[in-house]
Amino acid sequence: MRKIRLFIASSLDGYIARTSGEVDWLFTDSDYGYNEFFAQIDTVLMGRKTYDQVLTFGEYPYKGKQSFVFSKTVQAKDNNVEFVNGNWEGFINTLRQSNGSDIWLVGGAQTIHYFMKHGFIDELILSIHPIILGNGIPLIVNDPSLETALEFKDVKTYDSGLLQVSYDLKRKTTDKETVSKDIS
User: Fold this and answer.
1) Which of 5, 46, 97, 139 has the fewest C-beta atoms lying within 10 Å of its C-beta?
2) pLDDT digits over 87-127, tens only?
3) Would the pTM count as exceeding 0.85?
4) 140 three-state secondary structure
């Protein structure tokens, strides 16, 4: 089964973007493992708001990768992406069973919430930038049903103060059981 990996950056206080969606605070002085990660995936998943933000970057940054945008409303035409409008769970299960490399869940918050709620994220690679935004779009929304145990894999430190922490995600097998099982 293909792994879904959430490779994302946040501020120290847990925001992935400003309230406006801007990510102007992200460090761009180094790739911080991005190129190595990007070479390991062949599929990109994102929500519609993240897709809209990506379009402001100029040229589409994920060329050469199969790209899907999750949206409940938009059915646009774009040569770079395919839109997924219905039966997200069935689509994700089919995608994970298909041949290919790992899958990158780019964001955003609502899409991450859906994937977390359904136990679809296998790995979290979080680049924590040494900045406190005080407000913005949170990485994890306040939802008790998202309780998830994490298994530490690695941490990298950079001279810029950025920390990159990697975890495998574990989920409870049922609401009544306290034993967690590896979802990968």
Assistant:
1) 97
2) 999 999 999 999 999 999 999 999 999 999 999 999 999 99
3) yes
4) coil
- Domain CATH for 135: 3.40.430.10
**Of 95, 88, 119, 110, residue with least CA distance to 42:** 95
For 19-44, what is the mean pLDDT?
Answer: 95
Sign of torsion, CA 100 102 106 110? positive
pLDDT the model gives residue 171: 63
The closest alpha carbon to 163, from 124, 136, 126, belongs to: 126
Residue 127 DSSP one-character state: E
Q: How many domains does the chain have?
A: 1
Cα dist. 143→18, 49, 75, 124, 129 in Å?
A: 20, 21, 29, 18, 24
Provide the token pair at 120: 């679809």
Distance CA(3)–CA(1), nearest Å, equals 6
Residues 69, 70, 75, 79, Cα dihedral to 10° = 10
